[in-house]
Automatic annotation (TrEMBL):
<feature type="region of interest" description="Disordered">
    <location>
        <begin position="1"/>
        <end position="22"/>
    </location>
</feature>
<keyword id="KW-1015">Disulfide bond</keyword>
<dbReference type="Pfam" id="PF00578">
    <property type="entry name" value="AhpC-TSA"/>
</dbReference>
<dbReference type="InterPro" id="IPR013766">
    <property type="entry name" value="Thioredoxin_domain"/>
</dbReference>
<dbReference type="GO" id="GO:0034599">
    <property type="term" value="P:cellular response to oxidative stress"/>
</dbReference>
<keyword id="KW-0560">Oxidoreductase</keyword>
<protein>
    <recommendedName>
        <fullName>thioredoxin-dependent peroxiredoxin</fullName>
        <ecNumber>1.11.1.24</ecNumber>
    </recommendedName>
</protein>
<dbReference type="GO" id="GO:0045454">
    <property type="term" value="P:cell redox homeostasis"/>
</dbReference>
<dbReference type="InterPro" id="IPR050924">
    <property type="entry name" value="Peroxiredoxin_BCP/PrxQ"/>
</dbReference>
<keyword id="KW-0676">Redox-active center</keyword>
<keyword id="KW-0575">Peroxidase</keyword>
<comment type="similarity">
    <text>Belongs to the peroxiredoxin family. BCP/PrxQ subfamily.</text>
</comment>
<feature type="domain" description="Thioredoxin">
    <location>
        <begin position="2"/>
        <end position="144"/>
    </location>
</feature>
<dbReference type="GO" id="GO:0008379">
    <property type="term" value="F:thioredoxin peroxidase activity"/>
</dbReference>
<keyword id="KW-0049">Antioxidant</keyword>
<dbReference type="GO" id="GO:0005737">
    <property type="term" value="C:cytoplasm"/>
</dbReference>
<dbReference type="InterPro" id="IPR036249">
    <property type="entry name" value="Thioredoxin-like_sf"/>
</dbReference>
Amino acid sequence: MLDVGDAAPEVSAQNQHGETVTPGFEKPTVVYFYPKDFTGGCTIEANEFEDALPEFRDADIDVYGVSMDDVETHADFAEEEGLSFDLLADTDGEVAAAFGLDTSEGYTSRLTFVLYGGEVVATYDPELADPSGHAREVLEETREAYV
């Protein structure tokens, strides 16, 4: 798994609208990996990122959610939950692999990376705890350190 100080990987994937997205990672960027759309913890986490999205945007921090679900499933999930940030469809696991994550079970663990200036500046492992409050923690710490 990538760690603090590692170079940001070059990745591209389609979002829920079928558009190819290639994050640059020069400005503060949150990339959170989650196991699956429409599951309990993943839905909580997505909704909390959406609720805090105006604050992320005010601080000029990009947010991307990534799972191995396909574009259509992401589109349905985004519509049902009212999500307006990009959900990247990593069906082949290439994005996860670029971050050093295991995809052998057909999904990734819940892990979050903050990238800035072309490198990893923070990592979070909300898998070990309730995802409630995770987005707020990432926002506050990223805004304090890099904005």
